[in-house]
Prior knowledge:
This protein is an alpha/beta fold. 33% of the residues lie in helices and 30% in strands.
Amino acid sequence: MPNTDSEQNRNTYDKIASDYYKDHKDDTWDNDFLEDFIKHLPLSSKILDLGCGPGIESKKMSDKDIDVCGMDLSPELIKIAKEHTPKATFIIGNMLETFPFVNNSFDGVFAKASLLHIPKDKIHLVIKEMARVLKTGGIIHIAVKKGDGEHEVIENDYGYEYKRFFSLWQPEELSKIFQEFNLKILSAEQWQNPGKKTIWLKYILQK
């Protein structure tokens, strides 16, 4: 994704930050995503919540006394995350750039509904960085939407228009990428929220 697209994503989430948080702060449908991840972690884990948004999942992990660092492109989302989850650490960062962490920094990387904003021709850059900052034997959680291609969507869920970019994936595409970085698939699941059209591809990977 060129910098202009990154800037558009940042501007969009800065614009909708407050409404997005209010809309999603009480979500429970994805709790299983988090529990599947946590059960594979060692005690006293240090976790990177990649594309953490307003820190909703970061708070759930922090409340379980997990050491969490959340990273997101949007300063407004990070501001909300810091306000509601003071025990966690939050930083502004671009997934398409080198992560500001040394090698082997984390026991786990949690990336729910964040890689779906990364263009397919750039996903290798992100997966490479995720693997780099993860300890040997560490755990990755990824959840993206199933489908084909990539597109920009104009939405108005909050009473005003905004644009978001999405990439959609097939299991075969992702499996090839995971193999390139020697990431072992511990579990793979296609999950659909009852009453919703979206099919999520959920993965637990191990370095």
